[in-house]
């Protein structure tokens, strides 16, 4: 188990330093869970009780539009977080689905435990504030990309930002994430 | 001055309750500044030293793509925050422009003062964590809207979410925010 604990510890220690006692206290607020490839972690229409920190594997979050077409919002591999943030933070049922593209292992934390942890350990309130801030900036860049980049520019940026993901994620799914057709992406990937 | 102080206090007290002393301590970390219609608050290529909380007026943030076309990322009216988050939080020069669509008055806070305030007053760390979380969720909805909604659906959602903005912002600018042409928006607005 030490390997996966270290992945969580390194993630937090990129932002705040921890003593061993502090880390074990933090860890006691998480539970670990394994999922098989294709298994659902969150399903639209059900509550989203947990935020998920990936220690092994690969997931995606996606939703169906009114015409029943699927759109990928996010991928998450080792060292990334994934959830349906609206349902997790505000309650109500998930509108997103999250499933596993590979066999996956995650540390899960309920909102209650997250808030308790933030209240009990100031460093963790700082950590989550800074993580959310970085996430906000990343989403704003994604909006700019959707608003003003061509399909080719989006694809090149994806390869540049996420070289590992582009090796592990099937092209059909990258196309869905980028909002372009599979055929367009195939043509670009050949050149 | 009491009126505008109250706008800031109510904004914070939606999330945490404050004593008078706490609020005056918080206020001492902000400076107030007035801008005329058309004046720039942030200019691409220059540092973004402040986050801005609007107490009067209306602003927009926008950027120019490589072809020189302008895209609006955000509007902000009374009780909203606006900045170039990447430049403000991570340093470096702004890539966004922020200018005033009306005569405007803002409370400004530097990153240094914001971090000091968070360290000094736990309630403010909680406040900024929750505000950023809510902002993250709003941006994720905007991404979903850009990925899967038609121009008409986006326009209707804008009218529904921001009835006040749609009265105050010229249609050309709403079209730029929604990523649709002025002509398309005019046709929709007639019906």
From TrEMBL, chains A, B:
Q: What is the name listed in the Swiss-Prot or TrEMBL entry for this protein?
A: Transcriptional regulator, Crp/Fnr family
Q: Which InterPro entries match?
A: cNMP-bd_dom (IPR000595), cNMP-bd_dom_sf (IPR018490), RmlC-like_jellyroll (IPR014710)
Cyclic nucleotide-binding domain residues are 33-119
């Amino acid at each position: 188990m030490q390997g996966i604990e270290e992945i969580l510890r390194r993630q937090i220690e990129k932002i705040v330093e921890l003593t061993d006692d502090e880390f074990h206290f933090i860890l006691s607020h998480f539970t670990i869970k394994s999922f098989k490839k294709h298994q659902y972690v969150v399903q639209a229409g059900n509550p989203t009780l947990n935020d998920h920190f990936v220690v092994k594997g690969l997931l995606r979050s996606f939703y169906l539009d009114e015409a029943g077409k699927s759109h990928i919002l996010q991928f998450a591999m080792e060292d990334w977080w994934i959830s349906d943030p609206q349902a997790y933070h505000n309650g109500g049922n998930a509108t997103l689905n999250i499933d596993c593209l590979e066999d996956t292992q995650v540390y899960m934390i309920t909102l209650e435990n997250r808030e308790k942890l933030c209240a009990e350990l100031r460093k963790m309130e700082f950590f989550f504030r800074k993580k959310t801030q970085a996430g906000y900036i990343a989403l704003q860049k994604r909006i700019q990309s959707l608003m003003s980049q061509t399909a080719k520019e989006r694809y090149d940026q994806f390869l540049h930002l996420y070289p590992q993901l582009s090796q592990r994620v099937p092209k059909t799914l990258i196309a869905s994430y980028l909002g372009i057709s599979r055929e367009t992406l195939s043509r670009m990937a050949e050149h």
